[in-house]
Amino acid sequence: MRPLAADLVEAGFSVCNLDYPSRSAPPEELVAEIAGGIEACGAGGAPRMHFVGHSLGGILARAYLADRHLANLGRVVMLAPPNRGNEYVDRLVGSDVLRWLLGPTWAELGTGETSLPRRLPPPSYELGVIAGTWSMNPFAGLVLDGEHDGLVSVESTKLAGMTDFLTVERSHTFIMRADEVAAAVIHFLRHGRFGK
After folding, report:
1. What is the DSSP string of 142-154?
2. How many domains is the chain partitioned into structurally?
3. Confidence band (pLDDT; 50, 70, 90) for 45?
4. Burial class (CB within 10 angstroms; exposed 0-12, middle 13-18, buried 19+) of 103
5. Is residue 34 domain-resident?
6. Residue that wins the pLDDT comparison between 100 and 156
7. Is the pLDDT reported for residue 54 higher than 90?
8. Is residue 93's pLDDT more than 80?
9. By three-state DSSP, how is residue 76 classified?
10. How far apart, in whole angstroms, are the C-alpha atoms of residue 190 and residue 46?
11. For residue 196, is it within any domain?
């Protein structure tokens, strides 16, 4: 996320680029970690506080906002989020390999009604979603239906109540490094939409 953070700073935003132990902690601990990071960077005193998250980061932002009313909440952009869950998790549920590689939170990202993303309420704030449509993985189509970024299907990124939606020809891993994505994020944070 560093290149995107640099683009946001250049565009005039103050940025707190939060890290969290995605592979070692369950979701509630990750949300608490994010909450601590937000407090530590002093974002509570900002005139407007926006959120930009990639993949699991977007889901954690939704989880954070589900339990809080922020008077200074601005807009939220999610990059390649599994808002409807992830088919890979469904296929590998209970797998020790999945848990070892990705940690306990990823086991809760399936497509079932009780999965973490499906349990979260719809947004009550302006939300933009950007999905990727290009994959480096030639086998992803065996698991994912329709267009996808190699890890998350375009359909899975969509969320009822989102304000705007955009697809870009980028892969899941590097979507946040594309100039067109940075421009779309900045435009959404400023105007509440991706395009003119």
Report:
1. GTS-SSB-SSSBH
2. 1
3. confident
4. middle
5. yes
6. 156
7. yes
8. no
9. strand
10. 15
11. no
